[in-house]
Amino acid sequence: MTTGLALFDTAIGRCGIAWGEHRLLGVQLPEANDEATRARLRKKAHAAQDATLPPDIERACTAMTSLLDGNASDLSFIELDMTYIPDFNRGVYDIAREIAPGETLTYGDIALRLGNKLLSQAVGKALGQNPFPIVIPCHRVVAANGKTGGFSANGGVATKFRMLAIERAKIAGRRQEEAPMLFEPELSVAPRRRRS
Question: pTM to 2 decimals?
Fold first, then answer.
């Protein structure tokens, strides 16, 4: 299978995308620099080489960019290659993918939907292994009582807050205006650069 990868500019920095046969193999949130982003992406798609975006993958990048510009973009059309994803993780990702922009669920909410509140920690672990951030919006899953929970992307919880702030998220039933941690100055939108 031919696989490609490319970086694309968003409001949070240069993200990466890897694909094969019209399905995504991975999405990478920005790392400290382009090479670090490419290196993390290659862990998700080992044989991927820099390539020009095919039209369907370019459409996916455009939709993710729009979402990170604060638009309520629908990403459900993006096909994901789940071949090597464990069944439990797939179940978590299916639920997380249904969370609309600006909304959140808790780890416990997802655990209950899977049938057992005691699965909350396993839900968190699965989300930490998410190979498709943005498309599978793990940033929209928070801990109980509006606490953030973890976030494995570069920048950690600050990146999570930034993404939630862009989406004007409701956290624990509150609007972002009532969640001052979403307004930290370092969460401002980064300037965009060109695609490569």
Answer: 0.84
